[in-house]
Amino acid sequence: MAVPKKRTSKSKKKIRETVWREKANQARIKAFSLAQSILTGRSKSFYYTTTEKDSNLSE
Predict the structure, then answer these.
(1) What is d(CA 49, CA 51) in angstroms, rounded to the nearest whole number?
(2) What does residue 6 show for φ and ψ, rounded to 5 degrees?
(3) Alpha-carbon span 48 to 35, nearest angstrom
(4) Tens of pLDDT along 11-57?
(5) Please, what sign has the CA dihedral across residues 49, 52, 56, 59?
(6) Domains of the chain: total
(7) Which of 14, 43, 51, 53 could lock onto 37 through a cystine, CB 3.0 to 4.6 A?
């Protein structure tokens, strides 16, 4: 016969949610930092190609 599982405590649920949110926050910070370095032209570890269309638009 099927038996329902025990309920997860509020504290355990809150800890898991906090860990998940912190991982998302770290990814957000890293992506924003990379975007800033690309826009300012100081990126050392990220290489990308520019096309003629892009360079004509900036002039």
Answers:
(1) 7
(2) -70, 150
(3) 12
(4) 999 999 999 999 999 999 999 988 888 888 777 776 666 666 655 55
(5) positive
(6) 1
(7) 43
Taking the CA atoms of the chain, what radius of gyration do you get in angstroms?
A: 22
Residue 4 in any domain: the answer is no
Cβ distance 46 to 37 under 8 Å?
A: yes
30 within some domain: yes
Distances (CA, A) of 39 to 6, 32, 42, 43, 49: 51, 11, 8, 8, 13
Determine, yes or no, domain membership for 20.
Answer: yes
Q: Who contacts 5 (Cβ-Cβ below 8 Å, separation ≥6)?
A: none
User: What is the pTM assigned to this prediction?
Assistant: 0.56
Residues found in the chain: 59
Map residue 14 onto helix, strand or coil. helix
